[in-house]
Design brief:
The chain is an alpha+beta fold. The protein contains eight helices and ten strands. It has helices at residues 4-17, 153-156, 169-179, 184-189, 199-209, 222-243, 251-257, 290-293, and strands spanning 25-28, 47-55, 58-65, 86-92, 97-102, 118-123, 129-134, 142-146, 277-280, 285-288. The protein has a four-stranded antiparallel β-sheet with strand order 1-6-7-5, with no helix packed on it. It has a four-stranded antiparallel β-sheet with strand order 2-3-4-8, with helices on one face. Strand 6 (118-123) and strand 7 (129-134) form a beta hairpin. The chain is elongated and about 65 Å long. It comes from Thermasporomyces composti.
Length: 309
């Protein structure tokens, strides 16, 4: 799943490659990916990408109608070229989604197919554009076309961004206190508490902080809260810096290469050499190091899948 560092890198990539380009056509292959229908997705056509931003794990492309152009009655814009003219294409890539940039997109409309991962194709002229793709059978990739990103329910409910200047140790302590006895793994991945952290980086953060994923949130001593806060900022900052400037196609491999415990079940911990263990759930798993995080004791692999919601 693309998380905060990868989405931030995509933002930087699209700012460089897409801003200033005008949408010439949009092809929707998987109608299930569209979560809004007014304004229609065709309202993108003729609009220019003016900005790219991130909200947690959501990607946000601002598109603006040219001054004086007719916007039509239902696209949510005006014809004065001001901020009221903006629409936002907000994308959540979910677990298996990705953005593929191309300088040679086919002009022919793509055909739907059972094994076709393509969900949406956006043309930006001269063969340039991007595909939103999703592998697997669980189709969770989501696209919204809205006048305001806050109109997207997932964006509206986001907690603080852990790399923002106003995310402080005191704010971290408040979040943990409010979470009560909820387990740390679940608190870190709850987007309403902290925006942008997913399964992989929560494993990495807890390993860096030397904390059990099952430790109750309100059971941390003050020094452990500080350690967790520092681990969040350091792990995400370092991952974001490594991903900065990479092409979209290289982000996945970069992420996997630098993970210490996530996805490394059975391999030695890079810190202490102990074997990385796993706890499996209905549709996901977590990885941890017993020596670094749980006092050498393996965790029982029988927790409820609701931990990762």
């Amino acid at each position: 799943m693309p998380e905060l560092p990868e989405v931030e890198a995509l933002v930087g990539f699209l700012r460089q490659e897409a801003v200033g380009r005008t949408v010439t056509r949009v092809h929707v292959v998987a109608i299930s990916a569209l979560k809004t229908f007014q304004p229609p997705i065709d309202a993108l056509v003729g609009r220019t990408v003016t900005a790219v931003d991130r909200h947690g794990k959501f990607l946000d492309l601002t598109v603006r109608q040219a001054p004086g152009a007719s916007t039509g009655p239902d696209d949510g814009g005006s014809d004065d070229g001001g901020s009221d003219d903006d629409l936002h294409l907000v994308v959540h890539l979910a677990r298996a989604g990705w953005l593929r940039w191309s300088t040679s997109l086919s002009e022919k409309p793509p055909r739907p197919g059972r094994n076709n991962p393509l969900a949406v194709r956006v043309h930006l002229g001269d063969g340039v554009g991007f595909d939103l793709t999703e592998a697997g059978t669980q189709k969770r990739l989501a696209c919204y076309l809205v006048p305001d990103p806050a109109d997207v329910p997932g964006v509206a409910r986001l907690g603080p961004d852990p790399l923002a200047d106003d995310f402080t140790p005191e704010r971290m302590a408040e979040i943990l206190t409010a979470a009560g006895r909820a387990q740390l793994k679940g608190v870190l991945t709850d987007q309403a508490r902290l925006a942008g952290i997913g399964n992989a980086y929560s494993d990495e953060i807890l390993h860096a902080a030397r904390l059990s994923p099952f430790k109750p949130a309100n059971g941390l001593a003050p020094d452990q809260i500080t350690t967790l806060y520092d681990a969040i900022r350091r792990v995400l900052s370092e991952a974001t810096e490594r991903a900065r400037g990479l092409a979209a196609k290289d982000l996945k491999s970069e992420k996997k290469t630098n993970l210490a415990v996530h996805g490394r079940t059975g391999q030695p911990c890079p810190v202490c050499g102990d074997t990385v263990r796993e706890v499996s759930f209905a549709d996901s798993s977590l990885q941890y190091c017993p020596t670094c995080q749980t006092g050498g004791k393996p965790l029982a692999d029988r927790r409820l899948s609701r931990l990762l919601k």
